[in-house]
């Protein structure tokens, strides 16, 4: 195996991790927004 092969695999792994992190953050933000909306409607203060 040569260096280019390893670099390619590492790049793929990093891309995969970044994508997972992006989606995790995306859904966490959605949950936070949803909570704020609910509290607005129920009159709870944050």
From N to C, what is the helix and strand string?
H
The rounded distance between the terminal residues' Cα atoms is 56 Å
What is the β-strand count? 0
**Shape estimate:** rod-shaped
Radius of gyration: 19 Å
- Percentage of residues in DSSP E strands: under 5%
What does this 3D model show about the protein?
The chain contains one helix and no strands. By secondary structure, the protein is mainly α. It is rod-shaped. It starts with a helix and ends with a helix. The model has no long low-confidence stretch (mean pLDDT 91).
Topology, element by element:
Blueprint: H1 3-42
In short:
The chain has 1 helix and no strands.
Task: Provide keyphrases for this structure.
rod-shaped; 1 helix; 46 residues; mainly alpha; 0% strand
């Amino acid at each position: 195996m040569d260096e280019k092969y390893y670099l390619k695999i590492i790049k793929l792994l990093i891309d995969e991790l970044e994508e997972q992190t992006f989606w995790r953050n995306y859904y966490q933000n959605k949950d936070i927004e949803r909570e704020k909306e609910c509290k607005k409607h129920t009159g709870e203060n944050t």
